[in-house]
Amino acid sequence: MSRLWRDRLLISLASGSVALARVAGLARVAGPLRARIVAKQALDCDPDFGAEPWHGAAATLAGAIEPLRGERMNVTVVLSNEFVRYAIVPFDSAVAGPEEELALARFHFAKLHGERAKGWDVRMSEGPRGAPRLASAVDAELIGAIRAAFPRRGKLRLVSVQPYLMSAFNLWRRTMTGDSWLLLVEPRRACLALVGDRKWRAVHASRGEFPEAEDWAVLLDRQRLRTDAAPAGNTVLVHAPTDSRAMTHETHGWKFRGLALPALEGFLPLEDGRYTVALTAQ
């Protein structure tokens, strides 16, 4: 067996759970190159710990990585959608360059959320010129806590912090044709996005529990009424990490298609639902 590059440590953060999966660098074992999970750990945390919902997750993360500090790994952190705000930013021909684009996104968040938006770290998705862009905002103190957990001179090298919506979209974007609804279901949160012709058309996050397809249909009916655009299709791509059922069925006029992660040695779909958010970054 020959190791070609650093192992990757994929981490998901949510208010009630922190999950870590160590993926071995590509190795040759008498056959084709492939990656595999060599260690995994899922930890519960207290969503009521501290003044902010992410405080418990940040404290749990700090304790979980302490035994790993001597290991050389590239680290990617995927943030639950409960820690992220999203906004669709319309194209503005008067805006030129990344700095002005971010300023426009910050303006939109300030319009939606007021003064508290000043303390958020804002980023913009890539996209073709002339198309609306997806902007995400995360509490800057959370980003600071994650960076502090992985000092620059440490062996654990933080390479990316991603909102769950973006890691899922990047993983499954090739399966999204025409007008596509993407529904991401988590404990205490559901995030629904509509993408059409490679353009972000709508995004909405809802608090609460959404365990059944009937609950998803209610969300979709409401969002379709909110979407001020041409009618969208009724096919919905769903990722519900804690639900291991094969979700390909119709409910109340909606066609749900379950999304599955690419095959990965060491991942057991029926048992490892708590790791799937982290593994969307593989």
Side by side, the strands of the main sheet go 11-10-9-12-14-13
What is the molecular shape?
globular
- SSE arrangement, N to C: EEEHEEHEEHEHEEEHEEEH
Which blocks of ≥5 consecutive residues have pLDDT under 50? none
Helix count, per DSSP?
6
Q: How does this structure look, described?
A:
There is one protein chain. This protein is α/β, with parallel strands linked by helices and 282 residues long. The protein has two domains: 7-83 and 138-279; 84-137. It has helices at 55-65, 98-113, 140-149, 164-172, 213-226, 276-279, and strands at 7-14, 17-28, 33-44, 73-79, 84-89, 120-124, 133-139, 156-163, 179-186, 189-196, 199-207, 235-239, 248-251, 254-258. The chain has a six-stranded mixed beta sheet with strand order 11-10-9-12-14-13, with helices on both faces. A hairpin with a 2-residue loop joins strand 10 (189-196) and strand 11. Helix 1 (55-65) runs parallel beside helix 3 (140-149).
Short description:
The protein is of the alpha/beta class.
Notable characteristics:
five-stranded mixed β-sheet, single chain, six-stranded mixed β-sheet, alpha/beta, 282 residues
